[in-house]
Every structure is written in structure tokens, then in C-alpha cells.
């Protein structure tokens, strides 16, 4: 999407973003990469489930946001699973592949 040079972004929530949409996309991509790095760092210490990952990575975020953080974490883990970077252990946890 970034390469298409959009004039606006219409997100699922919030206002239409028309001021420098490319910068917004770059921020989102960098933020997702940062969360991936955090997940991989925690998993480098051993297998963990979504709840444990959220509790550690989002410790400074209000707990009311944790359900959304869990959904985001699951989505990121699905991406990492598809890439072969993590693997399921069979007990609702994942570990580095």
C-alpha cells in the first residue's frame, strides 16, 4: 500500500488520515516490527502463552487495553508461525523455532 502513494488512509476507527499517509504507514510498520522484536525477545527466554506475553510486553499499558493487545499478539504470532520463526508447543504456548 505504501508504494501506491496514497493520498488518504481510511482506518477501521478514527478519522480519515490525509496528512502524510506515507509517514503514517511507515510508523505503523515500524511499530509492528518493534512488537515482533519484543515477542521474539520474550520467547528467547522460553515458551510462553498469549496472556504471559501480553502481561510482559504491555505491562505499562492500562489493563483495559489488554484484550485488544491479546488480539494483536495472536495476529503477530500467526504471522511468525507462518514464517516459521516460532512454533506451537501443543499446550497453548509458542516457542522460537
UniProtKB/TrEMBL annotation:
It comes from the Bacteria. InterPro entries: LACTB2_WH, RibonucZ/Hydroxyglut_hydro, Sec-metab_biosynth-thioest, WH-like_DNA-bd_sf. Residues 51-91 form the LACTB2 winged helix domain. This is LACTB2 winged helix domain-containing protein. It comes from Blastococcus brunescens.
Amino acid at each position: 500500500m505504501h508504494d501506491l502513494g496514497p493520498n488518504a488512509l481510511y482506518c477501521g476507527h478514527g478519522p480519515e488520515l490525509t496528512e502524510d499517509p506515507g509517514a503514517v504507514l511507515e510508523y505503523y510498520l515500524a511499530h509492528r516490527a518493534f512488537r515482533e522484536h519484543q515477542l521474539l525477545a520474550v520467547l528467547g527466554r522460553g515458551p510462553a502463552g498469549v496472556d504471559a506475553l501480553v502481561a510482559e510486553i504491555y505491562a505499562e499499558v492500562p489493563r483495559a487495553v489488554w484484550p485488544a493487545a491479546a488480539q494483536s499478539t495472536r495476529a503477530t504470532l500467526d504471522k511468525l508461525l507462518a514464517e516459521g520463526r516460532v512454533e506451537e508447543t501443543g499446550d497453548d504456548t509458542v516457542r522460537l523455532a
